[in-house]
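Input set for joint prediction.
Command: fold jointly, output tokens.
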Amino acid sequence: MSPLDPTANRSSIDRRDGRSTAPQALTPGSFTRDQIEAVREAAMAITASLTVEQVLAIVAERAAKLIGAAASLVYLVDSLTGELRLITGFDVPEQSFGFMLKPDEDLAGHAALSSQPQIASDATMLAEIMATFERIAPKSVAPHISSAAAVPLIYSRQVLGVLEVLAIDGMIIDADQIALLQLLTPHAATAVIHAQLHDRNQQVMNLLEMINDRSAAVSSVGQAVINAGHDQTRMSAEVLTRTIASLHLAGGKVFLEDPVTHHLAGIASENLPKEDSVAGLELAAAHCLSIHQTILLQNMSAQAWTREVTQWLSDHHFGRLVCIPLIADNEPVGVLQVAAKINQALETGMLDTLHIIAGQLALGVANARLFGRVRAEQQQLAAILSSSSDVLIGLDANGNIQLANPAAERAFGFVARTVIGQPLQRAILNVALNNAVDTAIKSKQRQPSGMEIPLADDQTLFCNLSPIIDPVGQLAGWVAVMQDITHFKEAERSKTDMILTASHDLRNPVNLTLGALDLLGRSANNFDAMQREAYALSLLGVHRIEALISNLLDLERIEQRIGLNLTKCDLTETARSVVSEMRLPAQQRDQKLWLTLASTGDIPHVRGDAQRLYQVISNLVSNSIKYTPAGGEVSVTIWVQDDQVRLDVRDNGVGIPAEAQVRLFQRFYRAPNVTAEEQGTGLGLAIVKSIVEQHGGRVWVTSAVGKGSTFSVALPIWQEPPNETG
Ligand code: ADP
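tokens >
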């Protein structure tokens, strides 16, 4: 074979008949009119084609016909390996397309390597070509090949491929014919470049379209989730429809898991044959949900159900089946199942899009469920609140009403919806409640407190004001729960009346008895031992009755506010005299008793009645001494907290059980953990409470059995009246 330089080497072309012909001029004039017309027509057909395959098929056919060749082959150079790939041919079986030639193999290889037309010049070469053609197209014209030529397809000095023509039955391809082909190949090369550009453009367009489709799918699914509100069924159906349409999928199904029974049920289906209820589809969904992973099904045959699904897919001309678990907040809620069209690629980009869609749907379903749960709980709570006969008022940290039930409306005579968001003080005019809430707001009260709330119509409510602490430990407000205790109050009042009447009636006989005992006591020296013991017991008994009577009458006077004189009062001074007076009884029990002023400056005065406050501190300290074993400690601490003076009486005594603490301030109540030996009337703390409340203050207890108790009193600081200042 020899390179064919159209200008220099044409004289060296060897003909099959061995004769050498004189070089022919390559001017258009050398071709017949018909030939030029045929080239022009072929060029037009080539240029009109859009794909590389179409262009080259026309080149192959027209080239063969142009020179009367029996067959033609068109190769393109693989830009990576330099090898030649058979793209198309004329009179060549399609199966051989894709056949590869080494860069220097055969006539075509040489043409590509040299960038020059090549012609088979001797029998060895022809034999090689025949052998190649035999591989390309067995049982064809190979044995009859009498001549062959290869012309490179060159664009901008780059060899894109090779056109090879084969003649049979003694026909010899000559230089003129090659020159004729060379008129055609530049058109072919240009058209290949154009077609390749067109292909690439098309690919970019397809890619853009795909990206467009996918982002449209994602945003349309987002919209569907929003549109469906809290309706899971509608949401699933909308999401499925939009996914199938925008991603051009064949069909699909959404399964949701029942949060209680964990049963997985198909909730929406799109474009799937209706009569089919394929157990395999459900098994695939269940499997996907159990492993929390996406599964892709096509040719798996490991398990019976996968075989069933793949059979079903092929029966209905579907491509692959994708199952994606719907997981929100690590909680599986269902499965999104979509079937691709046959031959539809489900590449990473598509799966990513489906995962985003599944994520949106899962979140939508989880939110809808959460909403449903919250609404059910709200309805339940509302039903409880409205049917409750207890008065319920919820307040925020500023004392604004957040919630009020119908019982509250009835008790305070307002319409709940008109007072929500308003300060309690503006909505309800009840001095006791307003004061309690005011104190709670000012002291940022974190302890529950209880108080009686008298209503205008002689009714009385008992109010428990409890703090609401949010999950991060901040005080969020209070809830006031009030119960009607009018009947108890009445019963208590009649009980008190009876006791008071009895006390009054008993006072005279008791005084008489005491006088008589006093008289008797003067001759005590003459008593024998038994008489002395009987005398001592009688005296003790009568003194106890007298203490009880005087306590009761005292309580009555306190409650009637008889003799109460609230003035500027030094609580520290009062406490000091209580402590010094109690020191002796404490020492007798081998206890330590001391007073601490825990404040940087002076303790301000309070508004109080010094005698009554003395009674308060003295009752608390004597209780602590009484209920603390020998060798224990009792301390009194006074300090300032916000606009109140605080007094704590702390001991390390027997302590009080929690259930007893709530009843401690009731009359005659004595906690079960104190023994009968510790004498008392059960009236001391009732007196303390009554006095403290008349001072506008609060008293409460914190205690642990076996560790000790702290009784705390908070009293408002003395405020100078405006006319007395300066
Ligand atoms: P009493 O006359 O019984 O002391 P109080 O009204 O003073 O009546 O007290 C009521 C009850 O509270 C007592 O019986 C006792 O159970 C309990 N208590 C009061 N103070 C203390 C304390 N410091 N430690 C333990 N229990 C106490």
